[in-house]
Amino acid sequence: MSALFSTVSKVRNGYDPEEVDEFFDHARQVYEGKKPERLTSTDIQVSMFDLVRGGYDTHEVDAALDRLEGAFIARQRAEYVAVNGQQAWMNALAERARSLYGRLGRPDGERFAPAGRGESGYDMDDVDDLCDRLVAYFDRQEPITAAEIRSATFARRRGKDGYAEGPVDAFFARAIEVLLGVE
C-alpha cells in the first residue's frame, strides 16, 4: 500500500488501495516517460476506483487526482508552447473559450439537452447559475477558478425538468481544461 494516502476505518468505505496505487504508479511512469502511451487530463478526470471497506480516504485521493490533472495540463501547455509558441497556445485557448462561450449564449433552460423521460438529470437553475458565472468570467467581470467548477454540485431533477448529465459534465470538463490552461 502507498504511504501517500491514509486509510479509513474498516467500517467506512474508501477507494480500493490496489487500484489507486496501480493508477498512480502508471501515471507516474507515463509522466516520467517510462511508458510510451499518453495520459491526458481527460483520462485523469474519468478515472474511477471501486469502494471497499477500509480503503484509501476518498478526499485525499480526489485531491491528488486534481493535482495530477493540473500537472499533466501544465506539461501539455509547456510542450505545446515549446513547439508552437506562447501566442499559438493563447490562440488555441481562445478558440476553446469561444466554443464554450457559444453554448453559454443560449438562454437559461436551453443550454443543454433535457434528461430523457424518467432519467435523472441536473437542476437547470443550478447549472445555469454556474454557466452565468462562466459568462461573467469570459466577459472579465468576475473571477472563477477550475477548482470552483470542479467542486460545484447540482440538485437532481427527473426527465425534462433537468439537463442531461453527459453533455453538462463534458462541457464543464472542457471549461476546467481552459481555466487550467490559463491558470
Structural summary, described in words:
With 183 residues, the chain is mainly alpha-helical. Helix content is 57%, strand content 8%. The chain is built from 7 helices and 5 strands; from the N terminus they run βααβααβααββα. A 3-stranded antiparallel β-sheet has the order 4-3-5. Strands 1-2 form a two-stranded antiparallel ribbon. The longest helix is centred in the middle third of the chain and has 27 residues, at 58-84. The two termini are 33 Å apart. The mean pLDDT is 83. InterPro entries: CHP03543, DivIVA_domain.
Short key terms for the protein model shown above:
DivIVA_domain, 57% helix, 183 residues, single chain, 3-stranded antiparallel beta sheet, mainly alpha, CHP03543
Structure in a nutshell:
This protein is mainly alpha-helical and about 180 residues long. About 55% of the residues lie in helices and about 10% in strands.
Q: Helix content range of the residues, please?
A: 55-70%
> Approximately how much beta-strand content do the residues carry?
5-15%
Low-confidence stretches: none
How many individual helices?
A: 7
| Helix/strand class | mainly alpha
Give the helices and strands as they follow along the chain: EHHEHHEHHEEH
The radius of gyration computed from the alpha-carbon positions, rounded to a whole number of angstroms, is 19 Å
Q: Could you give the distance between the termini?
A: 33 Å
Q: Please describe the biggest sheet, giving its number of strands, its sense, and whether it closes into a barrel.
A: 3 strands, antiparallel
Output mean pLDDT.
83
What is the molecular shape?
Answer: flat
Q: How many β-strands, per DSSP? A: 5
Q: Name the strands of the widest sheet in spatial order.
A: 4-3-5
Protein name: DivIVA domain-containing protein
